[in-house]
């Protein structure tokens, strides 16, 4: 079978949401439709740690917070769907951002009562940076929430994306009757259904038909007719091209926990979402149909088995065909490596695979040779762009609390940074290690892992920085002057790029004003352009 048939079948996406909007529940229902799990609760149990298949770290088990990003694949309507799960906890946002580089589209879940929340905005910013196509699922219609039109306005304003409803709710909360599927002209009547997968879907091409009044009541019918008319008046028809270029988000309504509106979402997803897309490299655009295999590592999990210090690197295949036991080039290390046990992830099971295609995510066992962002190819020398680091929000200096174990500490912290647990900036004099994270939880993860995996003891001393900005300039003189003036706030990242650690927004603004030829980058993405 040619690669292009395999590629066309694949849909690789991520579900993103503010915690508690219903991401886990929706994931589970999608897996039910795909037959990848047999009962409701399977994914949820995973989340709350009853089974540990996707949670590799002890600390997760203790805390009951899913920090793992796992991959679940299933088949539906002739498509092979790969869901890349993302941690909802905000302290692991960086992990989620990286996962978004490995998907071709996303489904964004919004709680009808809460609307757009802090985490939703940040995640959408990342999607916009890459023009990732977004489908919005408004969840929990079985509860009272915001009016649908108000919510759509809020989405457009706060997420800075055009929206187009493709289904429409009939009432909500206790009065929730179902949804009208605008583009398929079907009526789907609501019946709470926590376990099964069948919906009561009926064609209804003519909204003026008296049948509608019989089914949902006179008042509700009148309201629905009026609202649909308004929608057609306010919103442009759905334009797939605009969706694919990330300008327009189709919107669906439903109730994930009741398995309602999920099938419409899945069907539409299969129809409109993109098949695997190419990725930019420092050499050229690499297309899925290119003959030769290539891929990049976007995630590393440590300690699948606490007895062995092995790690699993998650590789997104970009082009060609990956084959087991075949030598590939590890570009950064300039080494050839082969993999005897590459794994795929079918829901909760992992199994060894012989081959994999663009869009697939496979797990590669690794004893420490991979870093986030590494490229593997069949021969050609290039690096994929675009695994960004964002400025951390909390900074601490890592001190060695056990002088006899400094070697262990250095090794441990380096490996944890390779995995992307946090970012480390080195400050002079004395090679001081400043660790930056987006949440407090990572410091606990680091301390715990340094001690349990590496036998080292670290102590964190708070640092009063507000942001790390990567700095570049074509004006060498001005850059040198800045470095002299701000010695105490200059550091380097893992690739030896210069970083300015700003103490306050005001000081950052002053620096930007006083040194106009220096660019203060908020993400590390710029680095890739100069490679
Ligand atoms: P997350 O992954 O985005 O964090 O959200 P998750 O799916 O865990 O859902 C958060 C809570 O919202 C869960 O309740 C879940 O049952 C509930 N929920 C999800 N979809 C719907 C829906 O359509 N309607 C209503 N009413 N609730 C929904 P929980 O109390 O935290 O957990 P549980 O005890 O119900 O499992």
In the CATH hierarchy, what is the superfamily of the largest domain? P-loop containing nucleotide triphosphate hydrolases
Q: Overall 3D geometry?
A: globular
Radius of gyration: 25 Å
CATH fold-level assignment of the largest domain: Rossmann fold
CATH architecture of the largest domain: 3-Layer(aba) Sandwich
Helix content: 25-40%
Give the ligands present. Answer: guanosine-5',3'-tetraphosphate
Poorly predicted runs: 45-58, 60-69
Number of domains: 3
Q: How many beta-strand segments?
A: 31
Strand content: 25-35%
- What do the pLDDT scores average to? 86
Major sheet summary line:
8 strands, antiparallel
Cα end-to-end separation: 37 Å
Strand order of the largest sheet: 27-24-26-25-29-30-28-31
CATH class of the largest domain: Alpha Beta
| Class from secondary-structure proportions | alpha+beta
Number of helices: 16
């Amino acid at each position: 079978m040619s690669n292009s048939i395999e590629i066309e079948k694949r849909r690789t996406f991520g579900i993103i949401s503010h915690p508690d909007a219903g991401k886990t529940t929706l994931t589970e229902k999608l897996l039910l439709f795909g037959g990848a799990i047999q009962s409701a609760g399977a994914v949820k149990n995973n989340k709350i740690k009853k089974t540990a298949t996707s949670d590799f770290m002890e600390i997760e088990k203790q805390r009951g917070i899913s920090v793992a990003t796992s991959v679940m694949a299933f088949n539906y309507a002739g498509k092979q769907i790969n869901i890349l799960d993302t941690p909802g906890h905000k302290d692991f946002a960086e992990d989620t951002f990286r996962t978004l580089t490995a998907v071709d589209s996303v489904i964004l879940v919004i709680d009808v009562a809460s609307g757009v929340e802090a985490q939703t905005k940040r995640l959408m910013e990342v999607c916009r940076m890459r023009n990732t196509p977004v489908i919005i699922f408004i969840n929990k219609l079985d509860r009272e929430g915001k009016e649908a039109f108000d919510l759509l306005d809020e989405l457009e304003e706060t997420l800075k994306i055009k929206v187009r409803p493709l289904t429409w709710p009939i009432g909500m909360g206790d009065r929730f009757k179902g949804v009208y599927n605008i583009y398929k002209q079907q009526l789907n009547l609501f019946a709470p259904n926590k376990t099964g997968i069948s919906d009561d879907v009926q064609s209804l091409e003519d909204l003026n038909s008296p049948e509608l009044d019989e089914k949902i009541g006179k008042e509700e019918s009148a309201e629905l007719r009026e609202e649909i008319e308004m929608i057609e008046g306010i919103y442009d028809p759905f334009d797939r091209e605009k969706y694919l270029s990330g300008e327009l988000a189709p919107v669906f309504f439903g109730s994930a926990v009741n398995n309602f509106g999920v099938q419409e979402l899945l069907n539409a997803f299969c129809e409109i979402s993109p098949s695997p897309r190419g990725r930019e490299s420092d050499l050229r655009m690499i297309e899925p149909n290119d003959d030769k295999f290539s891929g990049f590592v976007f995630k590393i999990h440590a300690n699948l088995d606490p007895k062995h210090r092995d790690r699993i690197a998650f590789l997104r295949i970009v082009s060609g065909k990956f084959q087991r036991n075949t030598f590939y080039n590890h570009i950064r290390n300039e080494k050839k490596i082969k993999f005897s046990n590459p794994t795929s992830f079918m829901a909760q099971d992992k199994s060894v695979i012989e081959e994999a295609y663009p869009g697939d995510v496979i797990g590669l066992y690794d004893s420490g040779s991979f870093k986030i962002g590494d490229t593997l190819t069949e021969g050609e020398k290039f690096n994929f762009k675009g695994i960004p680091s964002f400025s951390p929000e909390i900074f601490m200096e890592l001190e060695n609390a056990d002088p006899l174990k400094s070697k262990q500490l250095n090794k441990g912290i380096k490996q944890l940074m390779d995995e992307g647990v946090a970012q480390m900036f080195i400050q002079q004099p004395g090679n001081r290690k400043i660790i930056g994270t987006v949440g407090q939880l990572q410091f606990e993860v680091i301390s715990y892992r340094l001690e349990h995996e590496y036998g080292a003891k670290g102590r964190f001393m708070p640092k009063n920085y507000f942001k790390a900005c990567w700095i570049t300039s074509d004006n060498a003189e001005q850059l040198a002057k800045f470095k002299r003036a701000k010695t105490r706030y200059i550091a380097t990242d893992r690739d030896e790029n210069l970083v300015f650690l700003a103490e306050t927004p005001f000081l950052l603004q002053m620096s930007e004003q006083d040194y106009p030829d220096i660019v203060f980058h908020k993400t590390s993405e710029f680095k890739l352009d100069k490679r």
